[in-house]
Amino acid sequence: MTGFLQSLLHVPAPVVLSSVAALVFGEAAVFLGFVLPGETAVLLGGFLASTGRVSVVGLAIVVVVAAVVGDSVGYEVGKRLGPRLLRTRMFQRHQERVDRARAFLDGRGASAIFVGRFTAFLRAVTPGLAGLSGMRYRRFLAWNAAGGLVWGVGCVVAGYVAGSSYEQVAGYLGQGGAVAAAALGVVAFAVWRVARRRAGRPGDDVPDGGRETAQHGR
Question: Which among 49, 110, 133, 156 has most CB atoms closer than 10 A?
Answer without folding.
Answer: 156
